[in-house]
Amino acid sequence: MDESKFNEKLTDAAKTIFSFCMAKTSNKEDAEDLSQDILYELIKSSGSIRDENTFYGFMWSVANNVYSHWYKRKLKNITCELDENMASDEDLFDIEDNSDIYLVRRELSLLSEKHRKATILYYIDRKSCQEIAQSLNITESMVKYLLFKSRKILKEGMNMERNLGELSYNPKTLHPMYHGQGPNRFYDFMQSKIKQNIVSSCYNDALTVQQISLETGIPLPYLDDEIKSLEDKKIVIKDGKRYKSNIVIISTECANEIERAVVRYHDIIADKMRDFIEEKMADYKAIGFINNDFSENTLRWQLVAILFRKVCGQNNETTDPPKTAWGENAFLWCLEELSRNHMFNYCGAYGKQGDSINFFDYLNLENRKGDHRDFYGNERYINIFCDICRGEKKIFSEYDLEAVAEMIKKGYVVKENGTYRATVPVYTTEQYKIIMNTVNEFISDELASIVREMDKAAATILSSHTPKHLQDQVAGIAAMDKFVNAVCIPATILIDRQFLSTSWHPFEMPTTYVVLNI
After folding, report:
1. 56-75 pLDDT, tens per residue?
2. What is the DSSP string of 1-54?
3. What is the rounded distance in angstroms from the CA atom of residue 145 to the CA atom of residue 115?
4. Rounded CA gap, 208 and 242, in Å?
5. pTM (2 decimals)?
6. Domains of the chain
7. Which residues are registered as beta bridge partners of 428?
8. Which of 81, 445, 468, 505 has the fewest CB atoms within 10 Å of its CB?
């Protein structure tokens, strides 16, 4: 390429090069310096250009290389006086341009806690380095270092384009699930919307705290404590400077895929459960437990509730629940959505004499009867109710009578001839053992192979939706999450067929029962 043609091309490209430099730098002076460097390198290398058709490709290659070297050199040459006059030299917060004020605030919200505190104390609260050192319990040298680093981070960040993630405008609601030893403290812990979206943000990708902030749209000052609490409870784990979720999240897409894969089993399970109830009802009544003369519908519900609980607990992979950060052995996971099929919840509470109250809550029903929250965590209520179930003719104090009145109001107790009677089946330990043996035999003979196939299908699908570092949890979670497909949907089928009715008897609890430790 001859010299005159080269000079013509270079003159035409000068404005384009300057625009490129303005986009890459923070001010006009730097852009001019960078442009000069690029033009100089182009002139030096003009002999390498074969013809005019290769000029622009060569130009952009030189421009990017020069910019790369210029930027690295600039980073090395950034200096800052680490002294008491740091603020008066160049105060980052004395800005008249509203757009720059926004950028400073944005970047300040992304600073780590120690950098952010030092910066606010120095630039906004006008504290000296000595005062900051005392306040943060660090040395003055460390204060100066934090301020130096913060200014550098803020300046660089202000020149970056930052985009908020989808969770910032479309936050997710996760539903915490628990299976194992009680109490279930995971449920209450995960009710925070911020915690849920932190876990969601770093589920598929490990993120820094700054990236979590941008993904969720929540400034770091509001995230720090939440991230720390999640890390303490091992719900998220730290990998270097990044965090990743440590629990499985079953997305709506994954749950629907599992349901489609096992839909052929729903009617089979419902049919087998119906046959079991019809075949064993007479033997069930003959055991002689308290209130074995309840209505047919109530007794069907009571027997099927025991069956449901045992099916839920079937884990054919024989995976032992891991120990949680609270100390119990349990599986923890979250659902992205509770579908209409999540219709039950089961739980147990224990009295002072070893008696147990067992609940199988019917969630999405307006006229539901029995809910574990009526007793759970209330030791006094539990013991009073167990005493009534034992038939103990004790004289209740006025304080205890208030609790009894509440139980009567909710349908757990009725008053007859001056005494109180529980409205639930009451089994002795031996009677309950007979029922459990019958249920276990049925599950082993009729349902175990089906449940095994369901678990296998669910695990295969869940594995494809789960990050690599959580694969060791897949088998256990898939087995625990069989609840909808092995229990709730078959129960719905039995209700639709009117084998089970939700028109409850007014003085009978349909799915709550007590086992006395006698």
Report:
1. 777 878 888 888 887 777 66
2. --HHHHHHHHHHHHHHHHHHHHHHSSSHHHHHHHHHHHHHHHHHTGGG--SGGG
3. 9
4. 4
5. 0.68
6. 3-77 (1.10.1740.10), 86-158 (1.10.10.10), 166-246 (1.10.10.10), 264-325+336-516 (no CATH)
7. 516
8. 468
